[in-house]
Amino acid sequence: MGWTARDIPDQSGRTAVVTGANSGLGEVIARELARRGARVVLACRSEERGAAAVRRLLAEVPEARAEFRPLDLADLASVRAFAAGLPYDRVDTLVNNAGLMAVPFARTADGFETQFGVNHLGHFALTGLLLDRLLAAGRARVVTMSSMAHAMANIDIHDLNSAHGYRSWQAYCRSKTANLLFTHELARRAEGHPLTAVAAHPGYAATELQAKGPRLAGSRVRERVMRLTLLVASSADHGAAPGLYAATAPRVAPGAFLGPTRLGTRGAPGPAWRAPWTRHDLAAELLWSESERLTAVRYGALG
């Protein structure tokens, strides 16, 4: 049968931060970590939706320790405020889950193309700002959710913000490659430190993400098409399994990429195929350097 959420080890005494935990994969990941005893922080942009997600979680897991804290990954000031206001000395698990998919061109509060800014730079900054608390945990995990769509586009280190032409799907795929390069470099830098960086993907799971881009673009036809494809998608619970496995399974290799093992879309979580460019050391180093420059966040404790 393979690994399921029922196999999550006891998480008592651990603190987990899950971004985008108000719906979809993030909501399931937060719920299941809380079910196994973790104190869970639901880091979400919308206070209304985040608070509603906490109420749903507590209704299903009454004994859970769960709270909402505001985090807008499209605004580095919000990321800094979240990190500064988090009242815990250690963070055992950070799940970088929130994201945008194939949305119309726009810029973040700091002027970055939104998909690159939210999917990669926001999480890069958040992880760096929480680094001391991750290292203080003793055996922390950083899980960054990517996608098999990364295989459709490599990053362009000279045009990370799509200034020379924007295509929504290309920008999304590039941001998912950036997630894997970030994990690759974080895992390398964390060698010798009590921190494991891994990435995961959900296969094709039914969440709100698929329809949001067409809806923002005002395309009812594309939105209907995307909603029709969800009829053959797996559930959010199933799609969250690789992320939960990455966050909690005892023997997960640093830098691993995990996903459904049946044709990359279904089945129990395990090692996933990844494009060779996501293991390119120089590309990962260059992206890291640019990310530090753009966000002004540096990972001093990792050298």
The main sheet orders its strands as: 3-2-1-4-5-6-7-8
Order of helical and strand elements:
EHEHEHEHHEHEHHHEEH
User: Helix proportion of residues, in percent?
Assistant: 40-55%
Strand residue percentage: 5-15%
CATH superfamily: NAD(P)-binding Rossmann-like Domain
Mean pLDDT: 92
Task: Break the fold down into its secondary structure elements and pairings.
Layout: E1 15-19, H1 24-35, E2 39-44, H2 47-60, E3 65-70, H3 76-85, E4 93-96, H4 114-129, H5 131-137, E5 140-145, H6 168-189, E6 195-200, H7 209-217, H8 220-229, H9 236-248, E7 257-262, E8 266-271, H10 281-295
Parallel strand pairs: 1-2, 1-4, 2-3, 4-5, 5-6, 6-7
Antiparallel strand pairs: 7-8
Helix pairs in contact: 1-9, 3-4, 4-6, 4-10, 6-10, 7-8
What does this protein look like?
- There is one protein chain.
- The longest helix is centred in the middle third of the chain and has 22 residues, at 168-189.
- Helix 4 packs parallel to helix 6 (168-189) and helix 6 (168-189) crosses helix 10.
- The chain has 303 residues and is α/β, with parallel strands linked by helices.
- The protein has one domain: Rossmann fold.
- The chain has helices at residues 24-35, 47-60, 76-85, 114-129, 131-137, 168-189, 209-217, 220-229, 236-248, 281-295; strands at 15-19, 39-44, 65-70, 93-96, 140-145, 195-200, 257-262, 266-271.
- 42% of the residues lie in helices and 15% in strands.
